[in-house]
Amino acid sequence: MAHAPVLDRSTTRPSPPPRRDPAWVRPALLALLVATGGLYLWQLSSSGYANSYYAAAIQAGSQSWKAWFFGALDAASSITVDKPPASLWLPGLLARVVGFNSWTLLIPQALEGVAAVGLLFAAVRRVAGPVAGLAAGALLALTPAAVLIFRFDNPDALLLLLVVAATYCVTRALEDGRTKWLALAGVALGFGFLTKSGQALLVLPALSLAYLALGPNGVWKRVRQLLLAGVTLVVSAGWWILAVLLWPAADRPYIGGSTDNNPLELAFGYNGLGRLFGGSGNMSGGGGGQNSSFGGSTGLQRMFSGEFGLEISWLLPAALVAIAALFWVTRSAPRTDRLRAAALVWGGSLLATGLTFSFMQGTIHPYYSVALAPAIAALVAIAGRELWVRNSAACHALLIAMVVATSAWGVHLLTTGGTPTVYVVVAIALGVAATLGLMTRWLAGGSVRRGLPALALVGVLAVAAPIADWGLRTANTPHTGSIPTAVSDSSSSSSSNAMGGGMGGGGTKPSGTKPSGTKASGTRPSGNPPSRSGSSSSGSSSSSSSSGSSSRPSGGGGGGTTSVSSRLAKALESTTTTWSAATVGAQNAASYELATGTSVIGIGGFSGSDDAPTLAQFKAWVKEGKITYFIASSGQGGGGGSSSVGTQITNWVKSNFTATTIGGTTVYDLTT
């Protein structure tokens, strides 16, 4: 007896999600979240302090509420990090409650990753059902860039969670037209702005256009709702900026990364237009659209090449096919069709963010590409499910194109990344098997049902196996240093790459350090060169001898870890002044802070070119007895050249105080 043909639903509106999922969905979701948590928490402390620049700020926030609120690098609040402080608040609170250590530093990011996976499941489920939701969550969890960032202390982890939360809220608004969902989306993006400034707004055009064009209410009501959402965004982002502007500048830290101690200039200059076009403290691209010190050549190829390709592009070809596929299958659907709305929300977000990253001239690092991961995972899962259940030649062809593109590109990346041959062979076999199976199903015209579950499994494995291999190996690798990368072999980020992005030097936890926010004994790591994964070559701390020299960067902007001898650490711990020391560059200061638990002034901020503190202010602090030591750098100051405050202060100290050596490091006692 012939089976009834599969219904072609290409012109019908997808039914709303069921009120009650099948019984297996909740256990499956719980298993996904537990597995994600295990992946992100596995040997988490092996990365030590990860990015010491942000780690020092979190330690400072655990010691001082003022430093916590402003995001200051030191507890005495001389200067902030070069990002808004939202990503520092949760780990700072946790460290204050249970003590500062590697776990309290990194656990918040891991939990943010689990939450992002759960929210992505919820958003996709409402459009394409629980199977697609679980697939999207799993693909996000395994994306190498996501595995990297959710095990690291950079702001991108919280930013990704907030962007997914905003997209979920817009998805709900597209269903029922309720204003509260749009308002909540505005709140999420507002706090995203307080996490990483303008990057949080890259999805705003797609979300706004999707609701304006496809929302369920009348057009003028949709406009009013979007305006209200804009107000909530501005309020959620602006309250902290307003507080900083109203706070007397003399009673708060200097806003690191800004040219005039202004949070607006930081947001829209250094972290805004400067990122897009270069300048404002960012490294500009060279001739011919080159920005080789950071992201390589600008252009459409950027997201597919080098470290960008290994971190994010595994499913990018399939996601691009998915956008076209979803718009094709909904070409005759009603205006408010949820599937078309999802294509615009996720596809628009992917294209807007990806094109911005591809052509921006300022500072960009490969791990920024994690911002593409939720959209890629959602598009692949939604389109894969929809093309599977529709029986038309176009849908069969598009599904085969997705599988072939993903498998072929995944094999290419595995080969490029030096993956063992056996894994490459398995990936090829899965891709060929899935392609042949899908072609057989197409030629059979939907009449073949036996073996479909097995075929679906092979197809999923063909798509997911390469990305899972790289994601799991990323999780098994410690990551420290200026620019973490989701790879696992040889050398990657050089110290020069740390300039201009607020990405501090390596942060391996000093041996012997107690897990608390108080002064810690022990020594800083020896500054081993980072591996391709961004980890130190040893992956562990190494103690300096009592007379050992300190491996120092040559000024404020360099990357790499500053080694702190035990003798120097004890000297700094024994001080009673507001700041135990001052040194040129925030990264250098961060290493001393993490080794001792004391406050150290990072003259010139991250790049060494911030005008903070001025020479006059520094002289006043010395006169008031607020600084004990000036720790010399091997170079002549920060990245600002002969006119930088680092150079000015260094020259003044050398002219007025006597140099001495503690543990192989040249210091000046400013109290004599």
UniProtKB/TrEMBL annotation:
Positions of transmembrane segments: 23-42, 103-124, 130-150, 157-175, 181-214, 226-250, 312-329, 341-360, 366-384, 396-415, 421-440, 452-472
Molecular functions (GO terms): pentosyltransferase activity
One Pfam family here: YkcB_C
Assigned keywords, A-Z: Cell membrane, Glycosyltransferase, Membrane, Transferase, Transmembrane, Transmembrane helix
GO biological process: lipopolysaccharide biosynthetic process; response to iron(III) ion
Domain Putative mannosyltransferase YkcA/B-like C-terminal span(s) in chain numbering: 574-656
Biased composition annotated in UniProt, kind: Low complexity: 510-553
Domain Glycosyltransferase RgtA/B/C/D-like positions: 82-237
Compositional bias annotation for Gly residues: 499-509
Topology within the bilayer: Multi-pass membrane protein
Keyword Ion transport: no
PANTHER family reported in the protein's UniProt record: MANNOSYLTRANSFERASE YKCB-RELATED (PTHR33908), UNDECAPRENYL PHOSPHATE-ALPHA-4-AMINO-4-DEOXY-L-ARABINOSE ARABINOSYL TRANSFERASE (PTHR33908:SF3)
Protein name (database record): Phospholipid carrier-dependent glycosyltransferase
Organism expressing this protein natively: Nocardioides mangrovicus
